[in-house]
Amino acid sequence: MRLAVKISLYNTFVRLLLAAGCWLAWPAPIPSLWYIVVTVTLGLMIKVDLGYAHFLLRPMRILIRRKLRIIQDPGQFDFVPLKTSTTDLRQLDKRINNLMSQLDIRFACEKAFTAYASHELLTPIAVLRNRFDNIIADEETPDHIAARLVDSQQTLLRLSRIVQMLLCLARIENHQYLKNETISIRSVLLEVLHALDDRIAMKEITMTLEPDTDIVSISANHSLLYTMLVNLIGNAVRYNTDQGHVTIGWGRFGNRPTLTITDSGPGMTPEQIAMLTQYGRPVKATGNGIGLQVIQTISRFHHIGISVDPSTTKGTLITLKFTDIQ
Amino acid sequence: MNTLIVEDEPAMAEEIAHFLRKVGFVCDVARTGKEASERVWMNNYDFVLIDLGLPDYDGFELLQETILCQHDASYLILTASGELGNKLRGLNLGADDYMTKPFSLLELHARMLAINRRKHGLTEPDIIFSGFVLDPLARRVHYGLREVELTRREYDLLHYLLLYRNRVLTRLQLAEHIWGNMADDGPDSNYIDVHLKNLRRKLAVYASTDWLETVRGVGYRANLPHLS
Question: What's the total number of domains in chain A?
Answer without folding.
Answer: 3
